[in-house]
Amino acid sequence: MIIAFVGTAGSGKTALTGAFGKYLEENHKVAYVNLDTGVRTLPYKPDLDVRKSVTVEEIMKEGYGPNGAIVESYDRLMDEFDHYLNSILELEEKNDYVLIDTPGQMETFLFHEFGVKLMENLPYPLVVYLSDPEILKKPHDYCFVRFFALLIDLRLGATTIPALNKVDLLGREELERHKRMFEDIEYLTARLKLDPSTQGLLAYKMCSMLPEVSPPVRVIYLSAKTGEGFDELETLAYEHYCTCGDLT
After folding, report:
1. Which residues are 163's β-sheet partners?
2. CATH number of 2-48+80-246: 3.90.550.10, 3.40.50.720, 3.40.50.880, 3.40.50.300?
3. What pLDDT is stored for residue 213 in this prediction?
4. List of long-range contacts for 194-202, beta carbons under 8 Å, 24+ apart
5. 70, 84, 7, 16: which is closest to 44 by C-alpha?
6. CA gap 38, 65 in Å, rounded
7. Scanning 77, 98, 143, 157, which has the fewest C-beta atoms within 10 Å of its C-beta?
8. Where are the domains of the chain?
9. Is residue 148 within 8 Å of 207, Cβ to Cβ?
10. What's the half-sphere exposure (Cβ side, CA atoms, 13 Å) at 63?
């Protein structure tokens, strides 16, 4: 089973990859893949690490700025694409789980040919899109997260489940509010209908059609610190691979 963690910088991808991997190692063989050319330290030992080929730090010494170095690093990785694809496929054959830690700059993975081509050639990868509670301030923010997960699914051609990370930082009432906004589309739509702003109107129209365009997936709630949601994520991965992808 291949699980890729995707999210913006600071969303907790790397910490979650390490913590979820340790959880799985209690009963399964787990392999780790690091695709972040800019990361300096990892909480897990990668079985495959793109930094052995190129790093952002090395490229910046050539005169590139940080953003340019990130893009250039992936341009160079394309020269070794077959090596990385075949290596991940070999890890998938030898292990129960392969966990893929994607770049901190999510757009690098989503918009560069390397990330898209890789996901298209892997067998039934499951993508976990991590969002941070800090971005969820208004009703239309929840609409954004749900639709962005759909866009990742569309871009990568892989089943994508939205996940709220770092839930250990939330109080019980706050977490329940997030869950209601994510899970009760009728409630969210009703809240959006009361918003007279242009953003509110757009979000209302989008969320009104969410039940029609969204595949049968559910939001999960995770914490690398406490392990909350790990059992549900493992179950979702099993359902994805073994029960025809029905994630309701």
Report:
1. 130, 220
2. 3.40.50.300
3. 82
4. 195/138, 195/139, 195/140, 199/138, 199/140, 200/139, 200/140, 202/140
5. 16
6. 12
7. 157
8. 2-48+80-246
9. no
10. 0
Task: Indicate the pTM of the whole model.
Answer: 0.92
The alpha carbon of 240 is separated from its chain's Cα centroid by a whole number of angstroms, namely 15
In total, the chain counts a number of residues equal to: 248
Measured between its terminal Cα atoms, the distance across the chain in Å is 19
Asked if 128 and 3 touch (Cβ cutoff 8 Å), the reply is yes
Is the four-CA dihedral 16, 43, 104, 156 of positive or negative sign? negative
Reported as a single tens digit per residue, the pLDDT across 45-90 is: 999 999 999 999 999 999 999 889 999 999 999 999 999 999 999 9
**DSSP code at position 79:** G
DSSP secondary-structure letter at 161? E
Tell me the Ramachandran region of residue 125: left when phi exceeds 0, alpha when psi lies from -120 to 50, beta otherwise: beta
User: Which positions of the chain have pLDDT values less than 70?
Assistant: 243-248
Question: Can you read off the two tokens belonging to residue 83?
Answer: 């090596």
Amino acid (one-letter) located at 133: P
